[in-house]
Amino acid sequence: MENINQIIESCEWFPSSFLVISENVFSPLLYYSYFFAFVPTILIGLIIFFNNTKRLENKVLFLMLVSFSVWVFGNLTIWATEFPKYTMFFWTMINTVEPFVYFFAFYLAYVFFFKKDFSIKQKIFYFSPLLITLIFAPTSLGLLGYNLSDCDRNAIEGIVAKYGYIIEIIYIILIIHFAFKACANKQLKSRKKEIAIFTIGISLFLFSFSLSNMAEVFSENWYIGQYGLFGAPIFAGLLAYLIVKFKTFNIKLIAPQVLVFSLIFLNVSMLFVRSIENIRYVLIPTIIISSIVGSILIRSVKKLDHQKELLDIANKEQENLIHFISHQVKGFFTKSRNIFDTLNSEPDAVHESLKPLIIEGLRSDNEGITVVTNILNAANLKTGKVNYVSNKVYINTLLDKIIEKEKVVAENKGLKFEYQTDGKMIEFSGDEMRLQDSILNIIQNAINYTQSGSISVKLEKDELSKKIKIKISDTGIGLTEQDKQKLFKSGGRGSDSLRYNVNSTGYGLYIAKQVIERHDGKIIAESAGRNMGSTFTIELPIK
Amino acid sequence: MINFIKENIFFIIIALFILVSVSFSYYRYVVLEDFEYFLTEEEIPEQFNINSYI
User: Fold this and answer.
1) What's this model's pTM, rounded to 2 decimal places?
2) Which of B6, B12, B18 to mutate to test the interface with A (most CBs of A within 10 A)?
3) H or E stretch at A454
4) In terms of Cα–Cα distance, which of A153, A208, A165 is closest to A22?
5) ipTM of this model?
6) Do B47 and A162 touch (CB under 8 A)?
């Protein structure tokens, strides 16, 4: 042992800091090749993973890049450390982890090509060769020992390391095999280009990685291995291209994230630069990345802006079309209603058997006019074409008019109807007709969507919160969380809406909300869930 | 938590295997320093010779 310590001392190795930084690394190429390999790949991997942590492709890619990062860290430590025990440990660690880069790459390729996971049998079959590495890498079969015949700080690899290279080549062959299989699959015809680009990128990365590792082991020229890492940024670049062109990994926008992450990383890395001359090695990639990614970002933003303009034009044209069609249709309904109205007012002019048809035609036309009017109102509200007339309104009187009619409708349906008020006159300034329509719509909804039980309407003036509150509760079908999301949106309906109200247009509550909000008020919908009833509260400010 | 384990059981098993293997390496090489030093080139065994592993 004394002899060993003497030999180690005679090598005059420098101490390392943070395991990876020391003057034992006598080539700057080593650090900067790792930098170029590690940074873009880990950036892209993190962006893809955090975009959707539940997606299998994203998870597997992340694991592949984590394995690669562990390899990079371990290899850098081997170069930097002065302790034989750390060389032996990290060398074993990278021999253990390296085949997993290939395994996860193969897993990723399969999932990417066929958009499905391995079966359990496939998982066991493709994973089982790695068990030999896992079990025997820490033994003497993995590393025979530490070479102190020179001061190069090398371990002597055993047979298991060579086995690792063989299974790496097998995984690469499997990737290419499945790529051809995917391209030959008629159902994947539309994705041929995407599959080809992915295969080229991943194969380049893995081939350069494994061939350079093998070359450095067999030739004992440890510099060769560093060139193999340049396959990694090429793979990262192709991944970024796939994301931008094909929205691969379900990512819609990547340029801003890449720019921000890489600028943060590169600026932080300047803290670790040891001499001012070396700052340019960090500045040069910063300038390159900022220029390339920045120009992609500017182009994306311009494109988005232009698309937004086109969308605004399309929306306006659609609104105008709805307006035009609704007006025309309303005109036809009105004419038809007038005819039925005339026939109904002349009972002697019409045969007895036709009278029910006339009444039904009149009712149907009135409903049609109401539906079209709702659609027109909604369209007008969206385009801001509605004129509000502000008058003094007594909310009690308004409600009395509505309830007088609707109470009869509810009781005819077998529902109990309650109206609570303290009798005091509540004055408000607003558009009486539109307020009446909005409150009427909510009460009618309560009746339509309640099959049994009761409807209750409560009017109160809350002096504390300075609000007029109209609460409409029912024991009806209730609202789910999904229903609540769509409720006040233009065209939005609850999931059972049409079952209970075939004439539901989906615009009534949207219009009511616009009108109430225009009067500085709000509508709140509450429900404990399906079949648990609901409560709509209209709040208006006391003016 | 249970759903997370169910969805990722395969990856969790792989991680456990790697953890055990790496922990064993750490214990052997860093804690016990149980490895051979080859002081001269002649001492370095041939990788493909079975006698090197006995």
Assistant:
1) 0.59
2) B18
3) strand A454-462
4) A153
5) 0.89
6) yes
